[in-house]
Amino acid sequence: MIGHHPDRDQIKLENVLTALGNPMRLAVVRVLAGGGEHPCGTVLSKEISKSTLTHHWRVLRDAGVIWQRPSGRAHLLSLRREDLDERFPGLLDAVLHGVRTDPDSIDQYAP
Amino acid sequence: MIGHHPDRDQIKLENVLTALGNPMRLAVVRVLAGGGEHPCGTVLSKEISKSTLTHHWRVLRDAGVIWQRPSGRAHLLSLRREDLDERFPGLLDAVLHGVRTDPDSIDQYAP
Q1: Under the phi-then-psi rule, with left for phi > 0, alpha for psi from -120 to 50, and beta for the rest, what region is B44?
Q2: Is-contact B29 B17, C-beta < 8 A?
Q3: Helix, strand and coil in chain B, % to nearest 5
Q4: What is the pLDDT of residues B78-111, one digit of tens each?
Q5: Are A22 and B19 inside 8 Å of each other by CB?
Q6: Nearest-CA neighbor of A14 among A83, A88, A98, A93?
Q7: How far is B72 from chain A (nearest CA, A)?
């Protein structure tokens, strides 16, 4: 794994909410919610700079929302769905439902 | 009403998540979730400065999480529960469940 990943019981509600409170990061979570691991270069628009991506991966990872692991020259990202569902039942489902019904500010960041 | 309150259909998911992504504001929402209007001086610890409170009321209000209306020399606060439940079904319930199961960082701000 890359960087710090909190253990499940160290995941804090306020950190998860802050991490999700950004349209670019919601766009990431929407892609990862489909399941599996995704190369970091494929989950957001190609227009977004590498430094911006790196910042957002760190916020999501530090909050406990995603796993990030190296794979060759790329990183693979996946959603910590099981951990989040166990810690905060219903939260991720409610957020993903909100993303589906109000995608306007998120779609601009789609790959 | 005081200041800007977005209409229900203008409430944005990312703004609600950001507003809730703070232990002091989660402490406010926990109190208001009991229902009714609460004088602004009664929902958080007396230790918190007026300027800090004013900042947090604005973040919650601008995001569409609370109503804030004047009453004499005070303001009355209430949760926009119906609007939030309509816009983002299950979100507030999941957050309040998380607050109940992991109150550590929130209790310090209780009145």
Answers
A1: beta
A2: no
A3: 55, 15, 35
A4: 999 999 999 999 999 999 999 999 888 899 999 8
A5: no
A6: A88
A7: 33
pLDDT number for residue B82: 97
Rounded-to-integer distance, Cα A27 and Cα A38, Å: 13
Q: What is the pLDDT of residue B104?
A: 82
Strand ranges (DSSP E) for chain B?
38-39, 66-71, 74-79
Q: What's the CA gap between A19 and B107, in Å, rounded?
A: 22
Local structure of B66: helix, strand or coil: strand
Residue A1 has pLDDT above 80, yes or no: no
Residue-range domains of chain B with CATH? 8-99 (1.10.10.10)
Question: Do the chains contact at A98 and B22, CB–CB below 8 Å?
Answer: no
Interface of B with A (CB under 8 A): 12-23, 26, 87-91, 93-95, 97-99, 102, 105
pLDDT digits (tens, 9 = 90+) for B17-73: 999 999 999 999 999 999 999 999 999 998 999 999 999 999 999 999 999 999 988
Give the Cα separation of B89 and B81 in Å (integer).
10
Chain B residues touching A20 at Cβ < 8 A: 14, 17, 21
Interface confidence (ipTM) of the complex: 0.94
